[in-house]
Amino acid sequence: MTNPKVCFDLVESPSSFVKVRRHYYLAKQVVVERWQRSRSEQAQENNCGGRLCFLFCALTKCVECSSEASELADIEWDNLGFGLLPTDYMYMMKCSQGGNFSKGELQRFGNIELNPSAGVLNYGQGLFEGLKAYRKEDGNILLFRPEENALRMRQGAERMCMPAPTVDQFVEAVKETVLANKRWVPPPGKGSLYIRPLLMGSGAVLGLAPAPEYTFLIYVSPVGNYFKEGVAPINLIVEHELHRATPGGTGGVKTIGNYAAVLKAQSAAKAKGYSDVLYLDCVHKKYLEEVSSCNIFVVKGNVISTPAIKGTILPGITRKSIIDVARSQGIQKFLDINDSGIKIRKDFLQEPYGSKFSCLIMENVYYLVSTACGCCRANVNNSFGVSCLMFFLMKVEERFVPVDELLDADEVFCTGTAVVVSPVGSITYKGKRVSYGVDGFGAVAQQLYSVLTRLQMGLIDDKMNWTVELS
After folding, report:
1. Contact 412, 306 (CB under 8 A)
2. Enzyme group, top EC level (predicted)?
């Protein structure tokens, strides 16, 4: 049996033909130490068609040394932006108007053929979705809430008079596409694989009517941060003349036309140095709706507010997840216990979601105690000596949010599949700039971002059952 240390050295040698699959990034020393402890029982050497295959039973899986396409793609993972990097495969299936989608197939990524009179080109009969896949530390891949995207596409398809894949067809197609392109899923902490499902009227039609044929397609691309600021605060400008959507229109579904309509205002804003545009409702011109491609949240006191879903705002899946996390776990703000005069009444709960915070219940109000700062301790009788506390913000409101509430908000942040959670550093409205006084995340956005991304990347237990693991 060849010493695994030698195998790893070969892998790192530029002249070596030996390359390992996704298990390579597992800690070398762990493998070496386990091999040394039990090499006679836990390792064996085989000749596999000219390639070496080392089986480390301590890892319960075969680590094949091969030059197949399962290794990571050769790109600069540390410099991923948000843009298209062509990958290996895409998925496609078709159906006729009034019919049902049948099993599709993978094909090499590339151009597709469309008739000039295709419904999507002439009448805008098209939808798209967006979701992500993340690589875990053990090499497996996680999808985040793909069923929600499938359901949203079906709702949008009904509005746009299109047939849509079933939820199962959608999810299975996503799984196939991701696994076929698994070498493009970034290493842990380096980004994610953005998944773009499309549904379009691909059949030829002249005259306003539903297309006779429809195509469902999925392609993928590895991505980093959406905004050039990364996780630094972004600067928004409120648009009070142009509007993204109207009541009774298609603002609540992910149709392709919604996005072309924001380009004019967005381009003008970026030319002035802003990151993006925040839109108001088109009737009263005073209620917040959403940013060009993400939802908006406003924090004031112990309340997190976000515009209600009323047909003009996209029902974001990240938005929904953030609301669920906030309501189920709670979000914190600093409170000096010495000034509060609140008496400890009940329990001490251990680190919900592995968040590095624990919970106190005082006079029916939930509080967080940092377990990392060292200033908060509990004895066996559940009495506490604390100098800093954080209380749970249990209240999340979905409502009409007047633009004036931005002027004295404590925090503002955006959410979306592409942006995840993005803190807002300033908002300009009618020439008045309001800054939120933070260099990065505010306390609320930071906690939400931490819990959500740790769930997405498999770093904490998924008590919500939101992730789908691909081995």
Report:
1. no
2. transferase
- Bridge partner list, 198: 128, 217
- The percentage of the chain sitting over the pLDDT mark of 70, rounded to a whole number, equals 70
Q: How large is the average pLDDT for residues 15-40?
A: 36
Going from N- to C-terminal start, the domains of the chain cover 4-64, 77-223, 234-327+394-470, 332-392
pLDDT of residue 232: 86
- The neighbour count for residue 409, using CB atoms within 10 Å, is 19
What does DSSP say about strands 411-416 and 420-429: parallel, antiparallel, or unpaired?
antiparallel
Mean pLDDT within 432-457 = 90
CB contact at 8 A, 426 and 413 = no
SS3 at position 185: coil
Q: Which residue has the tokens 């009737």?
A: 283
Predicted pLDDT at 331: 57
Tokens of 407: 């002027």
Domain 77-223: assigned CATH number: 3.30.470.10
Cα–Cα distances in angstroms (integers) from residue 173 to residues 91, 217, 237, 400, in the given order: 7, 9, 39, 37
* Residues noted as catalytic: 254
Homologous superfamily in CATH for domain 234-327+394-470: D-amino Acid Aminotransferase, subunit A, domain 2 (3.20.10.10)
**Mean pLDDT across 352-365:** 40
φ/ψ bin of 431: left (φ > 0), alpha (ψ from -120 to 50), beta (otherwise): left
- For range 74-83, the mean pLDDT: 91
